[in-house]
Write a structure and sequence with these properties.
Radius of gyration: 25 Å
Shape: globular
CATH class of one domain: Mainly Alpha
Strand content: under 5%
Subcellular location: Cell membrane
CATH superfamily of one domain: MetI-like
CATH architecture of one domain: Orthogonal Bundle
CATH topology of one domain: MetI-like fold
InterPro entries: BPD_transp_1_N, MetI-like, MetI-like_sf
Distance between the termini: 36 Å
Helix content: over 70%
Protein name: ABC transporter permease
Order of helices and strands: HHHHHHHHHHHHHHH
Membrane topology: Multi-pass membrane protein
Organism: Limobrevibacterium gyesilva
């Protein structure tokens, strides 16, 4: 008996099992690399065409010409554009975004300091949007054309139409100034500053870790209103997309076949149809989270929330180009990471993706 001949099929099967995931990961990494290079090109071009002179932001308007020329040479603006881009790319790969004009600190240090506040706000908003948006979208799809569907579509349209800064001002007036149900602008009351040691950067989590329940309640009271407003915007989008995906799934033949076999409508809708719709919803949720991070500028401005959005707004108004480009790069990297995560999650949700890759 030829032992090698018997071992060959199983060896080939093992190689195929390993090659599939490896090939999938390599494709994702290659796509991420190209996207990252495109992102650096875009931010580099923005830094060159934006009507802000980084040299003047450093030396001031009244600096003598020799000082202006010396600083311009020090930061490399006198070099050819390809050389400038190469130097910029190398600095970005090393996490060097320059120093902030406002804080005189490295931009990366500033971003690491303010980003957890935006992450905390956006995470809670995303949780609100997904927990309520997906079931609402399913209900709208299963009651298509009825009053439930009309109410949900109208509510989603309002979420798209209302400016977030207007909702923030109305929310502060109603729930903070009039009713007193929540705390006002800011992330914490002044009396609770510097009580909780930073572990994750998320105050509601760090306060629980430290056992400071008063800080947790105060932080949550500050967080709930801006997160609910952002969550309403994400809920409107998630509900609308869920409705669209579910309508497509409910038209499929497997739904009729499952009902004909005697499966309950609840199981067919909420297990089978929604399970297949999750493949598309993963991308929607990932992009929603990215848009929450990007779109928190107005919300953080209204609520004086010390996060990435407020940092970038202040940097833009003070002609702090390094900080603006660093924040833009951070948001872009987050988008890239979310897309990569959604691509890697597809095979876990849909076995057909594993077979086709």
């Amino acid at each position: 008996m030829n032992v090698a001949a018997l071992a060959t099929p199983s060896a080939h099967g093992w190689v195929r099992q390993i090659a599939g995931p490896v090939h999938r990961v390599l494709k994702v990494l290659f796509s991420v690399l190209l996207t990252f290079l495109g992102l650096t090109c875009v931010t580099f071009v923005i830094g060159r065409v934006i009507p802000i002179d980084p040299v003047l932001a450093i030396v001031g308007d009244k600096a003598p010409p020799d000082v202006y020329a010396r600083v311009r040479a020090e930061i490399g603006l006198d070099l050819p554009l390809p050389v400038q881009y190469w130097r910029y790319l190398m600095k970005v790969l090393h996490g060097d975004f320059g120093n902030s004009v406002i804080t005189s600190q490295p931009v990366l240090a500033d971003l690491l300091h303010v980003f957890p506040a935006t992450l905390e706000l956006s995470l809670l908003a995303l949780i609100i949007g997904v927990i309520f948006g997906v079931p609402i979208g399913v209900i709208a799809a299963t009651h298509r054309g009825r009053w439930q569907d009309q109410v949900i579509r109208f509510g989603s349209l309002l979420g798209y139409s209302m400016p977030v800064f207007w909702l923030g001002l109305v929310g502060l007036l109603a729930f903070y100034a009039k009713l007193g149900w929540v705390e006002g602008p800011g992330r914490l009351d002044v009396g609770f500053d510097d009580i909780v040691p930073t572990v994750t950067g998320l105050i509601v989590v760090d306060s629980l870790i430290a056992g400071e329940h008063d800080v947790f309640v105060n932080a949550l009271s500050h967080l709930v209103l801006p997160a609910s407003i952002l969550g309403y915007l994400s809920l409107a989008y998630v509900a609308r997309m869920t409705r669209s995906f579910m309508l497509s799934q409910l038209r499929q033949e497997y739904v009729l076949a499952a009902l004909a076999k005697g499966l309950s409508p609840f199981r067919v809708v909420w297990v089978h149809a929604l399970g297949n719709a999750w493949v598309q919803l993963i991308t929607v949720i990932a992009l929603t989270f990215g848009s929450l991070l990007e779109g928190a500028v107005l919300t953080e401005t209204v609520f004086a929330w010390p996060g990435l959005g407020l940092y970038m707004k202040n940097s833009l108004f003070n002609a702090d180009l390094n900080a603006v480009l660093g924040g833009t790069m951070l948001v872009g990297v987050v988008y890239i990471g979310l897309n990569m995560l959604s691509d890697l999650l597809y095979p876990l949700v849909d076995p057909r993706a594993r077979e086709s890759s």
